[in-house]
Amino acid sequence: MAYDDRRDENEPAIVAALRKRGDTVIRLGRGVGADLLVINSRGPHVIEVKDPTKKWSFTDSEKRLRAARAKHGVQYHVLM
């Protein structure tokens, strides 16, 4: 099954801001449960980017990742 890789329109600006402050940013693929893995001096951060101009909810994969990361103490952020 082929997936398109649509990203939120605000993601490039968020990635640019994170990289400008020195963070390592890795874009994750569809179905992973998050959009970005960000690594900086405070550790790894799982980032879900949402477009504040659109109605959104968490997908099943996002819900699973949020539960798993909580179990292991990894930070999960929703950025808009």
Task: Describe the 3D structure.
The chain is α+β, with helices and mostly antiparallel strands. The chain has one domain: 3-Layer(aba) Sandwich (Trna Endonuclease, Chain: A, domain 1). Helix content is 29%, strand content 26%. The chain has 2 helices and 4 strands. A 4-stranded mixed beta sheet has the order 1-2-3-4, sandwiched between helices.
Please state the structural category: alpha+beta
CATH class (first level) name: Alpha Beta
Given as residue ranges, the uncertain stretches (5+ residues, pLDDT < 50) are none
Please outline the major beta sheet: 4 strands, mixed
Order of helices and strands: HEEEHE
From the N-terminal CA to the C-terminal CA, the straight-line distance is: 29 Å
Strand content: 25-35%
Helix proportion of residues, in percent? 25-40%
Describe this protein with a few key phrases.
single chain; 80 residues; alpha+beta; Trna Endonuclease, Chain: A, domain 1; four-stranded mixed β-sheet; 2 helices; 4 strands; 26% strand
Per-chain topology:
Blueprint: H1 11-20, E1 24-27, E2 36-40, E3 43-49, H2 60-72, E4 75-79
Parallel strand pairs: 3-4
Antiparallel strand pairs: 1-2, 2-3
Write a concise synopsis of the structure shown.
By secondary structure, this protein is an alpha+beta fold. Helix content is 29%, strand content 26%.
